[in-house]
Amino acid sequence: MKKYLFIYFFIMSTIFAQTESQVGWVAKFGGAGGFSPIILFPNYNAVNVKAGKLGMNKLSGPLFGWGGSGYVYVMIIDNLRLGGIGFSGFQSEKNKLNGFDNELVYSLGGGALTIEYTFPFVKNMALSAGIMLGGGGIDINIYKNSGSYSWQNIWENVINNTNDIDKNYNLSNSFFLISPTLNLDFPITRFLAFRGGVGYQFTFGNDWSFSNGKKLNDAPSGLNGSGFLIQTGIFIGLFAF
Predict the structure, then answer these.
(1) Alpha carbon 189 to chain centroid distance?
(2) 30-39, 205-214, 227-236 — which is least confidently predicted?
(3) What CATH fold (topology level) applies to the domain 2-13+32-240?
(4) H-helix or E-strand containing 127?
(5) Cα dist. 19→1, 60, 115, 211 in Å?
(6) Which of 15, 59, 114, 241 is most open to solvent, judged by the fewest CB atoms within 10 Å of its CB?
(7) Domain spans of the chain?
(8) pTM for this model (two decimals)
(9) Which residues of 115-151 are buried (b: 16+ CB within 10 A; e: fewer)?
(10) How far apart are alpha carbons 30 and 212 in whole angstroms?
(11) pLDDT tens-digit profile of 69-81?
């Protein structure tokens, strides 16, 4: 299903690009940038199995990411626009167990080049199919702490190699991402527009590291940044739809 969706967007963009001059549609032009919140739906299953053993609630629901994006119509190819997007967000759970304050923080972010074709037959707004090409990462931070701390005690523990019962771990993964997208930009004025869109983020790369870059073995294969996404946005620029 995911493969067919990607092929569909590509074929449809090619067809409309070829027939545009024959029909006489007016090419879109302009450019914009703005605030682009994104909603992601990652797979938390592997993390939740371990979180449950700490008595924590499961991570669930969408992950809300904050970010920005922009684009400009290149004019060399009618209705083709290039741009970029960046985003990051997190979910967390906390609890207190056996005198320890436990916290689990799952963070997901990325940045990508955006390539989109705006369908010329849609008037007064921009319906665009495209793709995001870039990279991103996942960070999982695990904290198990108790009591209070001082600057001096922390450094003494490190220097003297003290076996500290408090634990702080960082697990991280970097990936390459490809995301077919379908976005609708609706102008309120010539210089202000709102966006809504959908897509699916495919991620590639299952190499994980621990804390200061040490290789992490046996990470679950299903622990990745792939998943359905929803784009929103408020854009300022020049809109000639």
Answers:
(1) 29
(2) 205-214
(3) Porin (2.40.160)
(4) strand 126-145
(5) 27, 45, 20, 54
(6) 15
(7) 2-13+32-240
(8) 0.84
(9) bbbbbbeeeeebbbbbbbebbbbbebbbbbeeeeeee
(10) 44
(11) 999 999 889 999 9
